[in-house]
Amino acid sequence: MCDTIVVVRPDGVLFAKNSDRDPNEAQIPEWHPAADHGEGATVQTTRLEIPQVAHTHATLLSRPFWMWGAEIGANEHGVAIGNEAVFTDQPYADEGLTGMDMIRLALERAASAEDAVAVIVDLLERYGQGGGAGYEHPEFTYHNSFIVADPTDAWVLETAGSLWATEQVTSGVRTISNGLTIPGFADDHREPLRVKTKVSACDIRTRLTAGSASGATGPGDLMATLRSHGPDRWPRYKVLNGTLSIPCMHGGGVAASSSSVAGWISDLSSGTHWITGTSAQCLALFKPVRVDEPVDIGPIPDGHDDGASLWWRHERMARTVMRDPDRLANLFLDERDAVEARWLSEPPTGQSAFDEGSALLDRWARAVAEAAGDEDVRPLWARSYWKKRDRTARLGA
User: Fold this and answer.
1) Average pLDDT over the chain, rounded to whole?
2) What CATH architecture is 3-300?
């Protein structure tokens, strides 16, 4: 479950997304250069092998470690795309492109937001969408909606099986979540019983993100939106769906659950993208990066604690903090905010930001570990949820 936001202003376009997936599903920031491809070349997506195009653009992606496609991404032409799982009245296919595959393919093949929409529609009609897209539950299948933006333009594209609709965003804030929203199309094709849509709490989150982002003038404002726990300082855990009703998710549901495993904000006018490269945006550090300046992020994470990658080092600290966030987060958040304010004023290179952020994380994690006790203020069902995920991830082993 995710939230994607675009803000269209007279002086430029801002884009943002929280990627909310299974809590052990590490996500990898990665850079791919532009490339030329010979006649007859193919590309292997998550499940389908399809014909390659003659030229692919340089991209920066945020990719779940086990799939080919990307949850969020941007290319050298300033196109940025994020997708959402949506539940509709159309059949779900066992095979096809995933929404994440379509994001990556569109970024590689399109030089504008409008062209990227056309690429996704063409892919949908040629190959269909389908197949499981979950990590904990590989059979979990859904349809997709997208926000597609560039420095001067933005679009919402929503799908239901092979059907689709578009809406151009000409000004102001537009947000999407886990339910269809385009008038007419949504009325016709939202799932008949609305069960999954209701459990996902997408309408609640759409109102929260739209309200929070309504006055956004720069990336710093959208950082606050992606970090939001709604009306509360820290999340409230519901038995059925955990923290699905807030943008910055922390798992904890018995029937349905997601965690915010990556955060991304794009200032498309400047070409600077602010990414966490980690989970838990409320505790994470947004770092400035560019498509044309690759960064060495260190060891590449997977679904198990490796003790070395940035994603899992931060994850260990975040899971400790969330046992008692009022006390433990205060050990470092003031410094985190000061660092981000300095970077927003004068962005460093991506490599410098990641290097400084890595050193800060080590220091903050030590402080948290020294201060943490056995207390866990979360309700019993949330504690049980996280103990199971910690065991599966071999956390600290």
Assistant:
1) 96
2) 4-Layer Sandwich (3.60)
